What does this fold into?
Amino acid sequence: MASGESARHWAHPELPGVDLLRARYIRKSFTPHTHDAFALAAITRGVEEFRHRTDIERVGPGGVALINPDVPHTGYAGVPEGWTYRVLYPSPELVAAIAAESGAVRGTPAFREVVVESDPYSHRLLTEVHRAAEEGNALAADSLLRIAVARLLRRYGTPLAARPAPGAGARIALRARAVLQERMADPPSLEKLAAELGTGPFALLRAFRATFGMPPHTWLTDARVRRARELLEAGTAPAVVAAQVGFTDQPHLNRHFTRIVGVPPGAYQRERARTYKTAPGTPA
It folds into this structure.
């Protein structure tokens, strides 16, 4: 990690369904990626800039970024000194449960706003969830988390719009994704993949980008890192993980993992091992 940068990506054993990231980045640049969870980020210093779908967003101190699951985005410094933030990654299932119990959103919840700049209370709630978790105060962390998510949903939430039936291009993209997911460690070339699906390479590129917001090779890297996280959490050695998900070697895994998750795979695995060791009912 670059000089002056620091990051901790972790989970609290009594906050199931939530990941936490506390970081200061200066030269860090997140490559296009998605999360299978929501990302609720409170910027405490500096400015983060990021591409969200096709728009460039910018959020400074006191601002909050709200990113829905499976939405492609990047992340990089918007000023020379970089940015510092605290991020919560609650699972869709947890957010849906909070939405249903609180009555904040009917149906499948999502956020209609990407950047919120004038809501100091929501910003404070997100940072206080982190502080409570870091202090080992699970009751406060869980309570504040639910208060924060319910408030954000009431103010900026919306029911997720029903997706229209996929057209011909989307159907091809979905089939391509299934092939890449199944053959992650040894994927076909674009030309071979297109031939298997009965289409042309450029037509496949256009359809895949239109459906998933990124080209197939970028999606595959993102999917490999998601799978790598699962294997690391299960205790698989990083070198073995690299081979199983299709990266050339461990340095290749390290580079892509850090560009998407924000910390190296070794640090990520150590934090998860600490979480599982201190989980309720587990001997310390």
About this structure: The CA atoms of residues 172 and 199 lie 8 Å apart. The chain has two domains: 6-159, 168-275. The mean pLDDT is 94.
